Amino acid sequence: MFSQSHVRALPKRLLGAWTRDPWLAASLLGLLCLLVAAAAFASDAGITLDERSLVDYGNGIVAWYRSGFTLRAATKDGILVIYGGLFDLIAQTLARHSPLGVYETRHLLSALAGVLGVVATWKLAAQLGGTRAGFLAALMLAATPAWFGHGLFNPKDIPFGAAAAFYTYACVRIALAQGPLSFRDAGRAGLALGLALGIRSGGMFIASYFLLAVLGALALDTKLAPRGRLLADACLKVVVALALAWAVMLIAWPWAQLAPFTRPFEAAADAAHFGWRGKVLFEGRSISAHHLPASYLPVWFAITLPETYALALLAGVVAAIRSYRTTVLVPRRILAAGILALSALLPLGAVIVERPLIYDAHRHFLFLLPPLAAAAGLALSSYFGSARVPKPLRLLGAALLIGLLALTFIDMRSLHPYEYTYFNRTFGGLPAAAGRFETDYWGASYKEGLAWVVQHPAPGTSAPVRIAWCHRSIPLEYYLRSWHIKRSQFRMVADLKHADIYLAGTRRGCPKPPGQLVHVVEREGVGLLKVTRLAQPTE
Questions:
Q1: How many angstroms separate the CA atoms of 467 and 372, rounded?
Q2: Residue 410 above 50 pLDDT?
Q3: Helix (H) or strand (E) holding 491
Q4: What end-to-end distance do the CA atoms of the chain give, in Å?
Q5: Whole-number Å distance between alpha carbons of 246 and 256
Q6: Cis bond before residue 298 (omega within 30° of 0)
Q7: Which residue(s) pair with 516 in the sheet?
Q8: Contacts for 4 with CB less than 8 Å, ≥ 6 apart
Q9: How many CB atoms lie within 10 A of CB 35?
Q10: How confident is the model over 327-375, as pLDDT tens digits?
Q11: Cβ pair 423, 304 in contact under 8 A
Q12: Kindly report the CA angle at 327 between 324 and 330, in degrees rounded to 5?
């Protein structure tokens, strides 16, 4: 047991440890700031296009278990059944006991998943380059508007990206570890893989990172013998890890539980050839999602990643050139760096070659951001820590990094809570993207538009004010209830002919009825949603 003197000395010991490693201290302070931001901002973004169906799916999974596997709503044919519902099961279980609303609880959980992704990125970079690299990598991801913005509400891509980042970290640990593969490292990889696949089964290909790490480590352990016993031991642990991953994947996936050895593969194949038939806006053209150019995903990353990533790439190149003669190549570190590079570049290359169906910008590939941020953090750390890079150049690099981060945070603040509509300044920002690329494709701005209508009733308008909206999958009635708005004041209606007010986002397919434009939800001068007072509504 700890004595009182030990307890009293603990703060001093912690302070001493932080003083010895200021990068760790800065990382812990940054984590605290992120947690505060998650709690403060999670409820700012509105309900998005997919969320009502995901709530129903999560409730169906809860009912599946509560009924003793007799209520099978979560096993019926539909789009969602090809995905695991791990996030949705947790979210709907918590929502039953949360003092927050259903969607507010989900958004907070999504924001916390985003914070976990930052933590995983820190661990990934720190494993390869120390705490300085970890801090810079975490800072890069936290200051990536796509990650931060989607983190406010995205229940699929952010949790999957966070789990995939922890999985990549586990694979890097295996690549760097000395000696035979341990059950602990194998179990860590299996658990993280199962969590990722329990959210998005289409990511099954990432299992290859684990196998590459194990085989590469075996090949590099030339001094260990006998080889046959090592191989058998590794195979046993790989099988156990994959079995664990499979079991975790199935926990919240009733549809797959009915045929656990075939349906997950069917789902992965369906996800790769999704039957969505819509069109996307790309470079000013409306193009079928099945016929997008190979440049679609690279362009989206190029115009939405902050300039800090370009600076990190330049810094890494400079550091590599300046120190290549003195660099000692360690095979294990090369293997670990190769796994990190593979996790960031292999999916992108596969998309360019295979050309699968993609839509809604790069949101299905947000899981690439943590390894990209980790690589950027490592590059910046090697630059700032290289004695072969002149000190004035390092100071210049630090000044540029701080300046670019400041500009990115300014842009994020001006876009909040729609940070995911960010386009970098090199491209021209959100104004340059208007009419050329998708902006508020999630429909998150409907909440703000509805709030404006409630706060600005037209003088002389007979109550109740009848409100219609374009994307009816967003349950705006939820907000009227949570704001305690009486039906005698405002009412949501389905038919434009019976509406006084019409809300329409910028996503394709919204009609343009005659009327007076009375308000626009906008950021940086770009409209995200229009509020129209309709002409001559009828009963």
A1: 44
A2: yes
A3: strand 490-492
A4: 76
A5: 11
A6: no
A7: 533
A8: none
A9: 13
A10: 667 888 999 999 999 999 999 998 888 888 888 899 999 999 999 999 9
A11: yes
A12: 135
Strand order in the sheet with 490-492: 490-492, 465-469, 501-505, 526-534, 515-523
For 218, the token pair is 């075996």
For the residues of 245-275, what is the DSSP string, one character each?
HHHHHHTT-HHHHTSTTTHHHHHHHHHHT--
d(CA 441, CA 246): 33
Q: What is the pLDDT of residues 177-233, one digit of tens each?
A: 887 889 999 999 999 999 999 999 888 899 999 999 999 988 887 665 566 777 888
C-beta atoms surrounding 80 within 10 Å: 18
Threshold 0.85, pTM exceeds: yes
Least confident segment among 121-135, 348-362, 367-381, 424-438: 348-362
Closest by CA position to 167, among listed 118, 132, 209: 209
Helix, strand, coil content of the chain in percent (nearest 5):
65, 5, 30
d(CA 523, CA 352): 32
Its CATH class, for the domain covering 446-534, is alpha beta
Q: For residue 150, give the nearest of 197, 199, 125, 117 by alpha carbon.
A: 117
Rounded Cα–Cα distance for residues 214 and 249 (Å) = 21
* Residue 298 vs residues 85, 139, 387, 428: alpha-carbon distances, Å: 29, 23, 34, 17
Backbone angles phi, psi at 456, to 5 degrees: -130, 65
Quick check: 403 pLDDT over 50? yes
pLDDT of residue 2: 45
Q: What b-and-e string marks burial along 430-467, b requiring 16 or more CB atoms within 10 Å of the CB? A: bebbbebbbbbbbbbbbbbbbebbbeeeeeeeeebbbb
pLDDT of residue 462: 64
> What would the two tokens of residue 413 be?
């603040």
Q: How far apart are CA 156 and CA 443, in angstroms?
A: 16
Residue the block writes with tokens 């308000």: 519
3-state secondary structure of 478: helix
Distance of CA 371 to the CA centre of its chain: 12
> Phi and psi of 390, rounded to 5°?
-55, 145
Looking up tokens 């819509």, which residue turns up?
278
302-316: average pLDDT: 97
Residues 6 or more apart in contact with residue 439 via CB below 8 angstroms: 421, 430, 433, 506, 526, 528
Give the tokens for residue 80. Answer: 């969602």
The residues near 129 (Cβ < 8 Å, ≥ 6 apart) are 377, 378, 381, 382
Domain ranges within the chain, ordered by starting residue: 20-420, 446-534
7: Cα separation from own chain's centroid: 39
Which is more confident, 537 or 247? 247
What is the overall mean pLDDT for the chain?
90
Percentage above 70 pLDDT, the chain: 92
| DSSP state letter for 329 | P
C-beta of residue 254 within 8 angstroms of C-beta of residue 66: no
